[in-house]
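User: Run a structure prediction on this.
Assistant: Running it now.
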Amino acid sequence: MPDLLDQDIMYAPGVGPKRKEILSKELGISTFGQLLEYYPYKYIDRRRIYLTTELLESMSYIQLKGRILSFESFDMGRRNKRLVAHFSDGHGVVDLVWFAKSQWVVNNYKTGVEYIVFGRPSVFGGRFQIAHPEIDLAEKTQLSAMGMQPHYHTTERMKKTGFTSHNIEKIVRGILDRLPAPLPETLPPYITKPLHLISRDEAFRLIHNPQDALSLDKAKLRLKFEELFYVQLNILRYASDQRRKYRGYVLNHVGQHFKDFYHHHLPFPLTEAQKRVIREIHGDMKSGRQMNRLLQGDVGSGKTLVALMSMLIALDNGFQACIMAPTEILAEQHLATLRGFLQGMDGIRVELLTGIVKGKRRQEILDGLASGQVNILVGTHAIIEDPVQFFRLGLAVIDEQHRFGVAQRAKLWNKSQNPPHVLVMTATPIPRTLAMTIYGDLDVSVIDQLPPGRKPVYTQHQYDDQLTSLYQGIRRQIKAGRQVYIVYPLIKESEKMDLRNLEEGYETMRQVFADCRLSKVHGQMKPAEKEEEMQKFVKGETQILVSTTVIEVGVNVPNASVMVILEAQRFGLSQLHQLRGRVGRGSEQSFCILVTTRKLSKETAKRIDIMCSTNDGFQIAEADLKLRGPGDLEGTQQSGMAFDLKIADIARDGQIVQLARDEAQKIIDDDPTCEKAEHALLWQRLSSLRRSNINWGAIS
């Protein structure tokens, strides 16, 4: 039976070479099994017939039973015609409309014959009409057998070649009819029975041909659980392997550096959340296993301070520490922050290593690292280059993990006899279910409190025809000595146009704020040029920074109190929240102004409303996940998720994610070395599902 699922899709009933090519290129489907895993995105109950008198404009799809009274053709110019069939069920009349294939319609559908018509109703010229309906002979259609009709996503190219959802439905039915024996099971009874999950065979048949809502729910639960279970089993197996294979340095001593800093140099009291997270990190560092921990916290929640105190524990145990940042400017800011925190403390040497540190100075730092005289190294990915050798690296902190490729992070492990403890910091709040799936091999710590004295950023929505009042507000802030960001979108698809808008916008701002000094930054500038403009703003030499989203990560200018985001409708929620996090870093009240056109889609208006109503990054991340789905969230694409999810939805299936994780954890606890005979089915299935042999979990 597995052979049949691996069979070439060309040999499925109704496919052949041409359709095989379309399925392969457009949907990535080349076998029977892959088509069976191409699940419908919606279902329509085909058992019900409506009367024309019951129709409402708000209905999505309906079915009518009746006869075509007559055909009428309308010339639409350029040899285009609109064909209209007047259709009646004896209670009223609706128009069936075609904008193509009109001759084929006239040849195939006759007046006076009883048909079942299926489609989406709309109103045109005061009458209900259905464009390009599906039409079946009433005498050959058994509605009770149709049940819930599945609908499959098709691409534009498929639509142009007449390859419809209905065609996919027929091909799937043909394949299912050729599967006489039950499909081989992929979950053992000791998992399916207690959870009341139906068999895999039944789930496949019902997902493509459900008779009612209950049978559809059962099929979805089984298939979603299986998909998420294997994702979790994969992640937890890696985490378990890693813990067994790699011994962590035991850093149990809390010594002079930490105590001196805590009692005499803390810039402000730690929040309870920061204290809790430091305890969690120290618990890992002294456990004897190598730490892989994700530290989540909103912008300004004090992650860097927690990271520094963790580094001081490493120093107290005779080890070195490093912090890797995604950009040179962010690395320099970390250096300034750490040196500021450590001012007045003796015996701690902190150095910077980026691409611009060259020659004799670079060699001094490399020598200091190799001899152990440099205690803390701050840098970009220059840290992972081969010439960089540590004396004893005990802790590596990675800021904004998703800016580093997985393979780059792996190089850190070669910098030490044992892998160093790893602390990954992110200011992108990640919903729990997503963190459990994407960063499932990392333990997660969350700083969910802002330090005392921080005022939430006041967020306001303005339309692009209200710019005069916006300019007045900016001027007031500048007069009070503050600085302002003005951000333009830069989307790859429209990069040239966006850069032109930024250039024009910059010139406009120079005229509007002729008495102010402005900087301009975008990704197309040379690094040195960009750096220079950025530094002018950081040092307060310019008052307004006109920029694309390159300032999204890490720029810390406490004096900047206004963030203006133009064309905010083009940004995702998480990106808007990240940008907003650039202000509100000082003690003054800060403002974020979201400027949009007046024409907004329902979803966009919802995004803007969420931004104006909350500063809570986790609420925003949850909303973003629900609006956009996990694949779109920045950073998830290289996170080590082992499989594409075909039916489960992490945003909406949180309970199933948890259930799957619990079951997977039981298996790992019972069989950490993956050798027990009773679990052989699970390990074989996992092996066949994995697309690559990279040990993702070990290199997070």
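The two ends are 38 Å apart (CA to CA).
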